[in-house]
Amino acid sequence: MSHRALVVGATGIVGQNLANRLVAEGWTVYGLARRIENLPGTIIPVAGDALDPSSLRQALAGLEPTHVFFTTWTRRATEKENCVANSTMIRNVFETLPKPQSLVHGSLVTGLKHYLGPFEAYAQGAPPQTPFREVMPRLDLENFYYNQEDVLFEAARKFGFSWTVHRPHTVIGYAIGNLMNMGTTLAVYATLCRETGLPFVFPGSPMQWNGLTDVTDARQLACQILWAASSPAGRNEAFNVVNGDVFRWNWLWPELAAWFGIEAATYPGHATSLEGMLSGKEADWTAIVEKYGLRERTLHRLASAWHTDADLGRPAECVTDMSKSRKFGFTGYRYTPDSFFDLFERLSAGGYIPGRNR
């Protein structure tokens, strides 16, 4: 069977890594995004706005994918608006595909806010019990992940395809201009510290500094999505997905500092806003760009400090159980320090940060 994938959000961290993996496996891959100029030549570009049905209908005309992968989201001022906008994007894709009845499988990437709550109520109240397991019920809160799932489930019933939902923790991987990009944000922060003498202070909460946690390499996520879309055991299930190891930031932080040739600052015992620390550093970043001939002059196109603050500032422990997918046959694993170091090497090779030895 010839596999034809439509990756919605192909320019993001998840979408890029998934599309590249599918191409490597011999799939024909269509990459849907509003801006397609950065897509590699191995991916067939599809320029369209998932919130604009007329744009989408024109973009998808003539396409008959066997699989559709939703790897994007849009941020609005309130969670109620998030619920409407993000579910509408998925509904629009199914309603504008020429032959949705030809679909074999649909995948949706959400995340741990399924268990922690939306940005408006993120990790507030009594902390959820860890490790997070897929059998945990939905929270009694508005959450756009739930709305996205419901649209996917409805379309699967209507058009007769199988589905999977994938719930990563913080995704570490390569993408430029992404709304949620901790790895690149920390690379920019460490570079500023090295070049300007700013102390490399861990910006998160005492719980995150001292407690166990995990992250998800974008390549690990891509592997699980491909496995679930290809394996009968993965059909019609929701799966957590993390690297498979756990760590404490008080151990990893000095490791990250060492890559950049700097010392990790003494943890102050409380959260310190990274967004605040990077505020006003645009001129410093421009000077670094000019000094090393880097590619991106706009600091906040690389660094999403607001999201890193949200992730690292949580007062709750975050440990994710992957037993379900392992029992079903997925055996992927990534060593977390390598997730960061591989990203730093790629950012350096691409001219977005200076090399580690400079």
From TrEMBL:
Domain of life (superkingdom): Bacteria
Signal peptide: none
Span of domain PRISE-like Rossmann-fold: 66-297
Annotated protein name in UniProt: NAD-dependent dehydratase
Originating species: Novacetimonas cocois
